[in-house]
Amino acid sequence: MKRLQKFLIIFFIPFIIFFSSNNTCYSKDLIQNFKTGKINWTTGVVIAWGNGYASKEITDVRLARELAKKEAILDARRNLIKIIKSVRLDSKVSIEDIVKNWDITEDNIKRTTYDSKVKTDFLPDNRAKATVELKIYGKLADSVYFFSPEKEEKKSDKTMLSFSRGKSEETFERKKEKEFLTKESKTGKEESLYSGIIIDARNLEAEPALFPKIFNEREELIYSYTKVEYPYVMEQGMVKYERDLKNAQKDVRVKPRPLVIRAIGVRGEGKTDIVINDGDAKKLMNEEKTGGFLKQGKVVILLDK
């Protein structure tokens, strides 16, 4: 009997470890998969793969492999651009829509791909494989920021936009310095009960986007990219996507006391805009007056796919 128990334990342990670890990896981040890559919306990274083959006509083996690696990198970057084009700005517009109408946008996107992290491997089948990785936010988001439709754009936002081209890093540093000084000078001000917001939009077929919007039941705009300070949009994005509520509550973006709101629907063709009820919207705006967490993009949205 003891031998049988020992055999069963030894036999099933590898399966238990495999499925538990595999399950953890699968459920941790919100990942959008493609044939030649993926978008990790939780970490804000686009990844693409490419292949290159060593020519048998080249007698120098080292040269043939190096050329194959370069070919693989070019292929991976082409695939990266294809994946980037599929990204939605909001429920109305995708990056591909912009590229079709503005040649300069495609040129900007191509330039950003040269900033991607590159890893190459040469495989036994005489094939080189390249993996390229690019942050969604930063230069990529900046290249399409101007094209996101917004009716309630403020003059202050337009002013910040005019300085963003070629000076995003300088603008970011100046903004952070001003915000720090402003926070230090404010004493005795009433603080919000919450440190951020989590919107649970699971089971609503909602989709991720670069610049999603949040509406109340009366279709009034509660949150959009113009309500977030430009440096925060560029550095971390206006929202972070998660799949698990516990992970979201521990996220540095919204902890230690996030306000959790349940979404009641989605809007738009792309299903990226979230709808919350009027009561929650009112509570959110009241807390924003003292907390200011919307301006800093302290928003996490839960999706289930």
From TrEMBL:
Top-level lineage group: Bacteria
Protein's recorded name: LPP20 lipoprotein
Species of origin: Candidatus Schekmanbacteria bacterium RBG_16_38_10
